[in-house]
Write a structure and sequence with these properties.
The protein is an alpha/beta fold. Helices cover about 50% and strands about 20% of the residues. Helix 1 packs across helix 13 and helix 14 packs across helix 15.
């Protein structure tokens, strides 16, 4: 019991160590495991993307067809200005560009005049071009007249003058510092364009380590100045709001470190964010109605009423989706998505209030569940075993997984079950491996102890349930077999030692196979003799029938060997088998230096003597009366009452001729009836009647292998007829040999 408890304690300790290791990884943050959680959230979005609702956002896409129809990008700024005017005339609340106009328009007349002059063009032509309106100036005037927002890139390369913010940034609580990205430089629009626009926002999108855009940054630092993203400033501009409010954790009553952003507010919209001021993106499936190709607007493909229906009161984002312009990104639901689509869907989420949120209590809940569920599995697994432990683990993992999925679907909560699943898996793996290692050592011990005298099936049963095995002496009701080769001494004289060994191997191997198949335990080999028994060390409710069938099968197998004559087989080999049943003492016996699992008792001694009587009676299988009583359906006949050497009490010995099929044979039944009458006449001292029965039954007796018995009975009856036994005679024959 102490050893059993020690094994369980070891499993618990190693499981607890695995659990604490995973908890340490969770607290420290392991990039590989964290990425698994993100991939799980991606699968959630693919399985249940945000339902599309028209939130008043449209994308004008400068796609491949637009470039084919209107010329390569960049287009003249006059064309871009015309696009803005058409959208404004259609009632767009804001026109925002996911395009950075950082260089002058190469098609402006002044630049063309300079180039023509350098190439030796005519002076009047140069002068005429120089006098024409500048395209960038015309575009700036259009921007000034329209609610417009220009984009710019934030970079970490070099440094430049700060990008002047278009909107005030008010901070409630500690200044945001934890995690909000910082950039020293910005690739800005041309100053006239920047100054003319109503708003400005950065368009930089930085994916996770695998390049997928899961979070859209809404604020960032350029130097010490907080700057809004294009999506956030477009929403501000559309409302005519003057500022953006940044709320930190210490001003919100939420859990978090100092300077961690929890939300942003512009106008009437408040947006929950990560501590770095990012918006968890909740993408929809693709919806083509969001996107209008630029060529349809500039070529007049859309009528005035269609333009108004598409753009009136809506925030319009202009982006470049043409393959050559490469503004394509990967999202959880699309491998190739327009970069401007991320900004558009961010605005939709802010307008609709449909957010994915990683609550401030999520980490605490995940760690608590990891500890609680992990401890349950740690403590339960040694008690319930690997299979039921796997079921319990699957239930716990399934419950955590379903809880995470339900939280996503019902509330938009992002609860990461990765570390919990990893912890439960680690606990199960290490405890199962530990238990398997411990049990394999135990199995190896049992195999070493028993595989030489137990059948493989019985060894497997003990290995599977060692509790069935009680080592040490115990008394059991058992069946014992002794088998010996007839005339082995004579064979030994004729054969050299190596041939004898090969013959014994050829004989003993199939005989033992037969016995092991009948659930026998091989006790020992005594030269050419086999000693085996049934009903130990495991219970065998069919021990008597198994012993009988095993003995009959040995006789059949020997007949086949005599027919086939394997190499070194010395002709026609015969055996005698003695079987007996009764109480025996069985267990590990021997000395402190060497033990053997064996049995002792009168039942064993009598079985050995019965095997010796097979030579006297000329039969192959002789059994004791106790065993015969347990085989009522087998072909069993009496051989006589015998007092064996070394035993005072007499024993009625029987011959086992066959199984139930022979016992039901009509000819056998007739012979068995006559055989019984013969023995009745013999014990009744009816010598004349017994002699007549002997003569009548001799031929069928020979057919059943009982010719020697009948010859022996004939001689005894003839002798008793001349010299009758005394009054105390009980029909007992005194055996003089073992």
């Amino acid at each position: 019991m102490f050893h059993h408890l020690t094994n369980k304690r070891g499993a618990i300790l190693i499981g607890l160590a695995a659990l604490l290791s995973v908890l340490t990884l969770q607290v420290a943050g392991f990039a590989g495991t964290d990425r698994l959680g993100l991939l799980l959230f991606d699968r959630y979005q693919r399985a249940a993307p945000r339902a599309f609702e028209d939130a008043g956002v449209r994308i004008v896409d400068i796609d491949d067809e637009s470039i084919r129809r209107l010329g390569q990008w960049p287009w003249p700024r006059t064309d871009v200005a015309a696009l803005v005017r058409k959208l404004t005339a259609a009632g767009a609340s804001t026109v925002a560009f996911d395009v950075v106009f950082a260089e002058p328009d190469r098609t402006s007349p002044a630049l063309l005049a300079k180039r023509v002059g350098l190439e030796g063009g005519a002076a009047p032509i140069v002068a005429a071009l120089a006098a024409m309106p500048d395209h960038d100036t015309a575009f700036a005037q259009t921007l000034q007249e329209a609610p417009s927002v220009l984009g710019y890139f934030l970079t970490r390369e070099g440094s430049a003058a700060a990008m002047p913010p278009k909107a005030g940034m008010a901070v409630v609580g500690s200044p945001p510092s934890a995690g909000v990205p910082r950039f020293p430089n910005a690739i800005q629009p041309l100053a006239p364009l920047r100054d003319a626009a109503s708003g400005g926002g950065f368009v930089s999108l930085i994916g996770d380590a695998d390049g997928i855009i899961r979070k859209a940054p809404l604020i960032a630092f350029q130097g010490d100045q907080l700057m809004p993203a294009l999506s956030l400033d477009a929403l501000r501009t559309a409302q005519g709001a003057g500022s953006i409010t940044v709320k930190s954790s210490d001003a919100s009553g939420e859990y978090g470190g100092e300077g961690e952003v929890v939300s942003l507010k512009t106008g009437r919209f408040e947006v929950p964010t990560t501590h770095a001021g990012e918006l968890w993106m909740y993408y929809t499936a693709p919806h083509p109605e969001r996107v209008v190709p630029a060529w349809k607007i500039l070529t007049g493909q859309l009528s005035a009423s269609e333009m108004e229906r598409e753009f009136s009161g809506r925030i319009v984002l202009i982006g470049t989706g043409a393959a050559g312009l490469r503004d394509l990104v990967a999202t959880p639901v699309q491998d190739r998505e327009l970069g401007v689509m991320v900004h558009a869907q961010a605005i939709e989420q802010m307008v609709l209030g449909k957010f994915l949120v990683r609550p401030d209590w999520a980490v605490g809940l995940e760690r608590s569940l990891l500890l609680a569920l992990g401890l349950i599995l740690v403590l339960a697994l040694p008690l319930i075993g690997a299979v039921r432990g796997a079921v319990l683990g699957a239930v716990l993992v399934g419950g955590v997984g379903y809880g995470s999925w339900y939280a996503f679907r019902a509330d938009g909560f992002l609860l990461d079950p990765t570390y919990i699943v990893l912890g439960l898996s680690a606990v199960y793996a290490v405890e199962t491996v530990w238990t398997y290692y411990r049990e394999e050592r135990q199995r190896a011990y049992i195999h070493r102890a028993f595989d030489r005298y137990l059948s493989p099936d019985m060894v497997k049963r003990i290995v599977d349930d060692p509790g069935q095995l009680e080592l040490g002496g115990e008394e059991r009701e058992m069946t014992v077999l002794f088998c010996d080769i007839r005339g082995f001494s004579r064979l030994s004289e004729q054969l050299d030692p190596q041939t004898i060994i090969r013959f014994l191997i050829a004989f003993l191997t199939p005989m033992c196979d037969v016995l092991l198949n009948r659930k026998a335990t091989i006790d020992k080999f005594i030269g050419d003799a086999i000693v085996a028994f049934w009903n130990a060390p495991l219970d065998d409710p069919e021990q008597y029938a198994n012993a009988a069938r095993g003995s009959l099968a040995m006789v059949e197998r020997l007949a086949a060997l005599n027919r086939d004559c394997p190499p070194d087989w010395p002709g026609n080999v015969q055996i005698g088998i003695g079987l007996n049943a009764g109480p025996c003492c069985v267990g590990n016996m021997g000395s402190a230096q060497r033990l053997s699992y064996s049995l002792i008792g009168d039942t064993v001694n009598l079985a050995s003597r019965i095997e010796g009587l097979t030579k006297l009676f000329g039969v192959q299988i002789a059994i004791g009366s106790a065993l015969a009583a347990h085989l009522p359906d087998f072909a069993v006949l009496p051989l006589g009452r015998v007092r064996v050497v070394g035993r005072a009490a007499s024993e009625t010995v029987f011959v086992l001729l066959g199984d139930e099929a022979l016992a039901q044979d009509a000819a056998y039944r007739a012979f068995a009836a006559g055989h019984g009458v013969l023995f009745d006449a013999y014990h009744a001292r009816d010598w004349a009647g017994a002699a007549a029965l002997i003569e009548a039954g001799s031929d069928p007796a020979a057919g059943y292998g009982l010719a020697k018995l009948y010859d022996l009975m004939r001689d005894r009856i003839a002798g008793f007829a001349v010299d009758p036994p005394g009054a105390d005679w009980e029909g007992v024959f005194e055996a003089t040999e073992k």
